[in-house]
Amino acid sequence: MTRLKHLIVGRNPKRTLIRCLVLGAVTYVLFGHVVRPVRVQGISMEPTLHNRSLHLVYLWAFRTREPERGDMVAVAMPGGRAYYMKRVLALPGETVAFSQGRLLINGEPFEEPYLAASGSWTMPEREVPVDHYFIAGDNRLTPFEGHTLGLVKRTHIVGALWK
After folding, report:
1. CB 75 within 8 A of CB 158
2. What is the C-alpha to C-alpha distance for residues 85 and 15, in angstroms, rounded to an integer?
3. pLDDT of residue 6 exceeding 80
4. How many C-beta atoms surround the C-beta of residue 36 within 10 A?
5. Do residues 73 and 160 touch, judged by C-beta distance below 8 A?
6. Range from 41-50, 67-76, 89-98, 143-152 carrying the lowest mean pLDDT
7. Are 140 and 115 in contact (CB under 8 A)?
8. 3-class state of residue 153 by DSSP
9. Rounded Cα distance, 75 and 82, in Å
């Protein structure tokens, strides 16, 4: 029993307890308030993020700046315990549309170098309201109707993919 106790608590139980408390506090702050691990479920962000892959979301990413076009963001789902990982395509005040798979921002084609294929999405032009962003996944080969995309309030964007 003494060998097991010695293995678990070491030679100085007080020091071991302090180390455990410090490690627990640092872990709580780091993973509760700075970064959050997120497992991708589904293929909507392929080929950029793969199904069942694990990533970190930086929760402080937008404390000093607003999301920009091209950012991969975590959008809180109702309840705040799960997130959608999507890409910001259009900013507040812009118009967004899809024509035969091409993204149009303010009526102009916008290059998306992160796409493997553009697909055939078609969506009429719509304006992005103030304090909203237009988001979508990178996998444009799946049917438009099968995607979770569209306008999202700024307050629902909780962080950005840790690079």
Report:
1. yes
2. 41
3. no
4. 18
5. yes
6. 143-152
7. yes
8. strand
9. 8
